[in-house]
Amino acid sequence: MSLEISDLTIRFGERVVVDAVSFSVAPGERFGIIGESGSGKSLTTLAIPGLLPERATWTGSVRLDGVELLGLAEKELARIRGRRIGSVFQDPQTALNPMRTIGNQLVEPLLLHGIVGRRDHDERARQAVRLASLVKLPDPSRIVERYPHQLSGGQRQRVGIGIALAASPSVLLADEPTTALDVTIQAGILELFNDLVSESGTALVFVTHDLGVLAQVADSVLVLANGRAVERGTVAGILDHPQHEVTAGLVAAARLTSFDARIPLGGGDPADRRAEPAAEGGLS
Amino acid sequence: MTLLTVTGLVRDHVLPRRTLFGPAEVKRALAGVSFEMADGDTLAIIGESGSGKSTLVRLILALDSPTSGSVEFEGRRVAPGSAASLRWLRRETGIVLQDPYASLDPRMPVWRSVIEPLRALGIDGDHRAMVAEVLERVGLAAELSTRYPHELSGGQRQRVALARAIVHGPKLLIGDEPLSALDVTVRAQVVELLRELHRDLGLSMILVSHDIGLVQHFARRVIVMHDGEIVEDGPSQRVLSAPEHEYTRALLSAVPRLDGRRRR
Question: Would you state the CATH architecture of domain B2-17+25-254?
Answer without folding.
Answer: 3-Layer(aba) Sandwich (3.40)
